[in-house]
């Protein structure tokens, strides 16, 4: 699949083992193959809903695909998207990588810069996805099916098997630009879906405008509320320290309660252990 000639001849229905007639029927009735629900955005620090300055609660739209389309999208993810190589800097939606592996490379670095992509999935429009797969060397029919079967209402829906993978591939060009400037300046860079983290043993504040400029070239917006440069940072929910990484204090306290109360299921304790074992 790495060969440009092979890519150009691929017929997506055959790759995922589906009849084109069945896929065409799904595309024609695509609205019937999604659900939609609205969730409040919760502040991780307070546990309360996030609000705008006027007090309005912030919300996100979740659009999971229904069973038949979800199965097709899972095949697209497993047989096509997961075969496209991603750099080691990318941790979200990648097998054997997590928010923990995303935070670990920044351990011991004195200066940390974090930023966030605003409305990441909704900002990746259907036309961008179609053009992306043409640019990657796939034929027009392949790009047509890929776009129609993974987008809804003209954008990447949050809550499907394919959205994180496609967003990763869409951001690849930007990732490689960031990797280049970071390697040249002794900066560690990782990305976990829409969370970008940069760190270094030396002050690199003067380079932040350059980094943000590269991100903005992608056409995506930056959430300046989640943009911060300082010594001590929480990276994708993990405390990054000089000689170790650890869970936030509130998670540690919940884990202690699990141990004290002896429940059969201990998700918080297991999570803390999975973080701490990286320090051994």
UniProtKB/TrEMBL annotation:
Gene3D superfamilies: 3.30.70.270, HIV Type 1 Reverse Transcriptase, subunit A, domain 1. It holds the Pfam family RVT_1. GO terms for molecular function: RNA-directed DNA polymerase activity. Keywords: Antiviral defense, Magnesium, Metal-binding, Nucleotidyltransferase, RNA-directed DNA polymerase, Transferase. It is an enzyme of class 2 (transferase). It comes from the Bacteria. Transmembrane segments: none annotated. InterPro entries: DNA/RNA_pol_sf, GrpII_Intron_Splice-Mob/Def, Rev_trsase/Diguanyl_cyclase, Reverse_transcriptase_msDNA, RT_dom. It catalyses: DNA(n) + a 2'-deoxyribonucleoside 5'-triphosphate = DNA(n+1) + diphosphate. Its EC number is 2.7.7.49. Residues 1-240 form the Reverse transcriptase domain. PANTHER family: NUCLEAR INTRON MATURASE 1, MITOCHONDRIAL-RELATED, RNA-DIRECTED DNA POLYMERASE. Belongs to the bacterial reverse transcriptase family. This is RNA-directed DNA polymerase. It comes from Flavobacterium artemisiae.
